[in-house]
Specification:
The protein has 286 residues and is an alpha+beta fold. It is built from ten helices and six strands. The chain has two domains: 195 residues, Multidrug efflux transporter AcrB transmembrane domain (Multidrug efflux transporter AcrB transmembrane fold, Up-down Bundle); 75 residues, Alpha-Beta Plaits.
């Protein structure tokens, strides 16, 4: 059964507007929950001397520090612990000493690093530059690939994607670190690809159906691509759901953010980019 997406185009304006406002307010009030990469903290690579000293036992022993633990295939454990904002060198050294006292002689140390505020600030700057640079490159691609309403629709939905992704991290309180930047860029890439495929079909149909009303033309194109959109989304979603439930705490936030990316990218492709496109002469731009 064909779905009439353009029938609800006004509702999509209100929903997207509300989400943008919510995202901006959350970013202004709560801000982002910076991880160790950006806020500073302690990073250790240790190896349990005894097989009985499992990851769960280590997590319980360090519970007061709220650690992030990740174990590789060789048995090495990456321990990441954030410190309070503005923690000085004395506090950092004391935290390292306390952690070593807790571990005692049950682990050997491969590496111990302290990420200070200066390094964190440099990483934040680098991350922001990476996001801005990727946005400029994607915008340039969209502008070269399309023209008229197609280009404007893509750019508006691209901006919306970035705002909503940052808003999601702020609202949910997810840790914002270098992995989060990778998630945002991956999610935006997924969204842009979806829009390009969708716009290609609309361009083809605009040349084929010369007398079909514009709203029906867009609905027809989206419906023709719906099976591909759903199958692609479900395939990625199943992978992320598996990561969320079975890959441990370290990858749980990554999986959750990617699930949001897929839903957001699909929604903005079906509605926002096409709703903007609705207000332009498609046959003139094709």
């Amino acid at each position: 059964m064909a779905m009439h997406f353009m029938k609800y185009r006004k509702l999509s304006y209100w929903i997207s507007g509300a989400l943008v406002v919510l995202s901006i307010v959350s970013l202004a009030v709560k801000g982002l929950n910076y991880g160790i990469d950006f806020a500073g903290g302690i990073s250790m690579e240790v190896k349990p001397i005894s097989a009985d000293y499992t990851l769960d036992k280590m997590r319980n022993d360090l519970a007061t520090f709220k650690p992030e633990l990740q174990q590789d295939t060789k048995g090495n454990v990456l321990v990441r612990i954030g410190l309070e904002k503005g923690a000085g060198e004395d506090q950092q050294n004391k935290a390292v000493a306390d952690i070593k006292n807790i571990f005692g002689d049950r682990v050997s140390y491969n590496q111990v690093q302290i990420v200070g505020p200066k390094i964190g600030g440099e990483l934040i700057q680098g991350g922001i530059l990476a996001i801005l640079f990727s946005f400029l490159l994607m915008s340039l691609y969209v502008w070269i690939r399309y023209k008229g309403g197609y280009a404007i629709g893509s750019l508006i939905s691209l901006i919306l994607d970035f705002v909503l992704m940052f808003g999601f991290f702020s609202i949910m309180g997810l840790e914002f670190n270098q992995t989060a930047i990778a998630v945002i860029l991956t999610g935006i890439g997924y969204s842009v690809n979806d829009k390009v495929v969708n716009y290609d079909r609309i361009e083809e149909n605009a040349k084929r159906y010369h007398k079909m009303p514009q709203g029906e033309l867009i609905d027809l194109s989206v419906n023709e691509m719906m099976q591909r959109t759903i199958l692609t989304g479900i395939t990625v979603m199943l992978s992320m759901i598996a990561l969320y439930f079975f890959a441990g705490e370290v990858l749980r936030e990554f999986a959750l953010a990617m699930i949001f990316c897929i839903i957001m990218g699909t929604a903005t492709s079906v509605y926002i980019s096409n709703v903007v496109l609705y207000h332009f002469n498609l046959r003139k731009d094709s």
